[in-house]
Amino acid sequence: MTPRGRRGSLRAGALVLLGLVVAGQARASARGSTVHQDPVPGGDPVVVGSKPFAESLILAEVFAQLLEARGIPVDRRTGLGSTEIVFQALLADEVDVYPEYTGTGLLVLLGDSVGAEPDQVFPRVARAFQDRWGLRWLPPLGFENSYAVSVRPGTADSLELRTLSDLADRGEELTAGLSPDFIGRDDGLLGLERSYGLGFGDVRPLLQAVKYQALAQGAVDVVDAYSTDGALDRYGLVTLVDDRDFFPPYEAAPLVGARLARERPEAVAALTELAGRLSVSRMRRANREAEVDGRPVEAVASDLLEELGLIERMSTYSAGPVGPDTPSFLAYLWGRRSETLGLTWDHLVLVALSLGAAVIVAVPLGLGLSRIPSRAEGVIRGVGLLQTIPSIALLAFMIPALGIGTRPAVAALFLYSLFPIVRNTYTGVREADPAAVRAGRALGMTERQVVLQIRVPLAAPVIMAGIRTAAVINVGTATLAAFIGAGGLGDPIVSGLALSDTRLILSGAIPAAALALVVDAGLALVEQGVAPRGLRESGTEEAR
Q1: Where does 246-296 have alpha helices with state H?
Q2: Which CATH homologous superfamily contains domain 344-532?
Q3: In this predicted model, what pLDDT tens digit does every residue of 387-409 receive, in sequence order?
């Protein structure tokens, strides 16, 4: 293929890719992250968010279904990565409402101390949030979900642990498995260290979904828990008494954004119907159904609302618990095929947008650096430093400027894509066949002509190898974008981790792995196509 032919093929491929991305973005924008494809009439969708643990997912779904039952369309942005992420999304009007807890609002978001009677915490928090941010706490749902510290019965008996003061005396002998959120919170480990002098021999950050298993298996000795966790009953754990009343009240309540409170009184009125209706026992049972029995969150939420007399039975959410009649994993995947295809397309859009932008920036940058090799290594190392930033941290950094959803995810993935493309472009151009370069100069070519007509065509396979590397990295990293509401195949992975649902995790992980292989294979064909004919023929001869 001639250089002109290769350039034409690349242009055509770029146009096809651009069309694919535009179409995909339009589809993603139209579909959003809502479960329902056909929203009920009633104005703009109310965006319901949640944190990535079972109870928050259930309550968010309760909010969503209740709003839909009242004729209000909903967009779900659930499983957001942490308190700080979902709260920043609320402040930025990227989320309209999510379930929060008064103790978290007081100590974490306000940075305050308890310093008040338990029954005064809610009015105190509600007033402060309204004054500082214009946010509105709706009346509590009727239960508290306090932090707790739990151990195995055998550990409690052998070390005579009944209270947190007892634990403080023996903590240096034990390994704690704590959620990352708990480790850095003033109402978590930091506060316990100050109040009780509590310290551990070792602290291991563990996700909510795996820490109970780690405790049951003896990998850790102590875990942080929520008082309504269904796993407490499942594993028969002992919850230690907070004998110094360190933990404040954690009343669950809808936290409403300023825009929703101001513009959508009908939505606020609908959510207020939940006030005081959910008991601790009923919420604990709901959590157990989702976390232990494996019932879909949608079905659990629907049951709650029906029991409260707030909705009629929705056949859409009538799925029962996992049991002997549970379909095989392949049948399960087949049953989710429509949703999986949609998530795969959204995932591909994230990768295509970020990779396309990276190619546009990184290839010219690599070409420019090839002209100034004395500065190239420093610039390439600087770009490479972006690879050292943890993915979830980089995604979180994007939220204040870009909000949540597709934009910050694409920006973060773009930054991760730069290094392999810049490095390979620079290396490929600099190491192009010296004899061909000398021949070009002997023919009177300018340096620009030598670069564009000799060095770049010869370097094309190396450049494409960098693009392939970036693409595969992006497919994997894009699964983490679910923590900031970007959707894609990370959604079932995040939900599965929160619910300890292996099948749900694999329903996202397997398609993501397959997509990485398909993308790499497709780009490999492009790599072969852009290789100079002499290199392709040489490769063919060697294969023979």
Answers
A1: 258-263, 265-272, 280-291
A2: MetI-like (1.10.3720.10)
A3: 888 877 788 778 777 877 888 88
